[in-house]
C-alpha cells in the first residue's frame, strides 16, 4: 500500500485525477469505478477541467459506481445517479449505456445485486477504483463487520453513517436507511485502487487503515492485502499517523 501525504485537499484532488487520467489514456476502454460523497468532488472538478481543456476522451470508457441508496430514483437530487451526472458524467463524452450504478428502486433488490455483479464481470472487472472512506472506516457502504468475502449486497446503514450523510439532506429523517453497495471482495478484485481522504475528521479512519491490524471491524483495512493501492491524504487526514 502506498501512502502519499499532500498539503491540502486541492493537491489531493489533482494527484488523484492525474492518476485516473493516466489509466484512461493508457487504456481508452477502461472500466473505472467511481465513488460519491464530498471527498471526490474536487477530483471530478479536475477531470471536468481536463476534459474541457485537453479533450481527454471518454468515448469508450465504462464506469461502475460503488453504491446507491435504496428508494431514491435517479432524478432525486440526493441519489448517487443524480450526483454523478451533476459532478462528472454529464460533462464528459461518455456513452449513456456505459454508465452503471446499482438501481436502488429495483423491485427485487437481491436480483439487482446479482445483476450488478454480472455487469462488472461482463466488463472484465474494474481497472481502477476510486474510493473515499467513512469516519468508521467504511468503503462503499460496507459498514464495520462486513465480510471481506462480500459481493454487491443490500446494507442497513449504521446510525453513524446516517448521521454523517445527513449533512447532504434537508433533515436526518430524509436519509435512506438502506443502500446497495459493491462488496469488499468486488472492490478488492479491481486492478488498481486509489483512496482519497481529507480533513481532520478522517484522521482516525486513516490511522485505523494504515496502522491497525487487518480486521473486518475496519472495512478499509482489507485494502492492505491488495497489491496496488494508493492512499492520497491531506496533512489533516494524516495528522494522527505515527
Ligand atoms: C460513496 C461511498 C462512501 C464515501 C464515504 C466518505 O460512494 O462509497 O464510502 O466515500 O462515506 O464520504 P465523504 O466523502 O462524503 O466524506
TrEMBL record:
Its EC number is 3.5.99.6. SUPFAM superfamilies: NagB/RpiA/CoA transferase-like. The keyword Hydrolase applies. The active site is at residues 67, 136, 138, 143. Residues 10-229 form the Glucosamine/galactosamine-6-phosphate isomerase domain. The keyword Hydrolase applies. Keywords: Carbohydrate metabolism, Hydrolase. One of its GO terms (molecular function) is glucosamine-6-phosphate deaminase activity. It comes from the Bacteria. It catalyses: alpha-D-glucosamine 6-phosphate + H2O = beta-D-fructose 6-phosphate + NH4(+). Pathway: Amino-sugar metabolism; N-acetylneuraminate degradation; D-fructose 6-phosphate from N-acetylneuraminate: step 5/5. InterPro entries: Glc/Gal-6P_isomerase (IPR006148), Glucosamine6P_isomerase (IPR004547), Glucosamine6P_isomerase_CS (IPR018321), NagB/RpiA_transferase-like (IPR037171). Catalyzes the reversible isomerization-deamination of glucosamine 6-phosphate (GlcN6P) to form fructose 6-phosphate (Fru6P) and ammonium ion. Belongs to the glucosamine/galactosamine-6-phosphate isomerase family. NagB subfamily. PANTHER family: GLUCOSAMINE-6-PHOSPHATE ISOMERASE. HAMAP family: GlcN6P_deamin. This is Glucosamine-6-phosphate deaminase.
Amino acid at each position: 500500500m502506498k501512502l502519499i501525504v499532500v498539503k491540502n485537499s486541492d493537491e489531493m484532488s489533482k494527484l488523484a485525477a492525474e492518476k485516473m487520467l493516466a489509466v484512461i489514456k493508457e487504456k481508452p476502454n477502461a472500466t473505472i469505478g467511481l465513488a460519491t460523497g464530498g471527498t471526490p468532488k474536487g477530483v471530478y472538478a479536475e477531470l471536468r477541467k481536463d476534459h474541457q481543456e485537453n479533450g481527454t476522451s471518454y468515448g469508450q470508457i465504462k464506469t461502475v459506481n460503488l453504491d446507491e441508496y435504496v428508494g431514491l430514483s435517479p432524478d432525486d437530487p440526493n441519489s448517487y445517479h443524480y450526483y454523478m451526472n451533476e459532478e462528472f458524467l454529464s460533462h464528459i463524452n461518455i456513452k449513456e449505456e456505459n454508465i452503471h450504478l446499482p438501481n436502488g428502486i429495483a423491485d427485487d433488490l437481491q436480483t439487482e445485486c446479482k445483476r450488478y455483479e454480472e455487469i462488472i464481470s461482463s466488463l472484465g472487472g474494474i481497472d481502477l477504483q476510486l474510493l473515499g472512506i467513512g469516519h468508521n472506516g467504511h468503503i462503499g457502504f460496507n459498514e464495520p463487520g462486513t465480510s471481506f468475502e462480500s459481493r454487491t449486497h443490500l446494507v442497513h446503514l449504521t446510525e453513524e453513517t446516517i448521521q454523517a450523510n445527513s449533512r447532504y439532506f434537508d433533515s436526518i429523517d430524509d436519509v435512506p436507511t438502506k443502500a446497495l453497495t459493491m462488496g469488499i471482495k468486488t472492490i478488492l478484485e479491481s486492478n488498481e485502487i486509489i483512496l482519497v481522504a481529507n480533513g481532520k475528521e478522517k484522521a482516525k479512519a486513516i490511522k485505523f487503515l494504515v496502522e491497525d491490524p487487518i480486521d473486518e471491524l475496519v472495512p478499509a483495512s482489507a485494502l492492505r492485502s491488495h497489491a496496488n493501492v494508493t492512499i492520497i491524504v491531506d496533512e489533516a487526514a494524516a495528522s494522527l499517523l505515527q
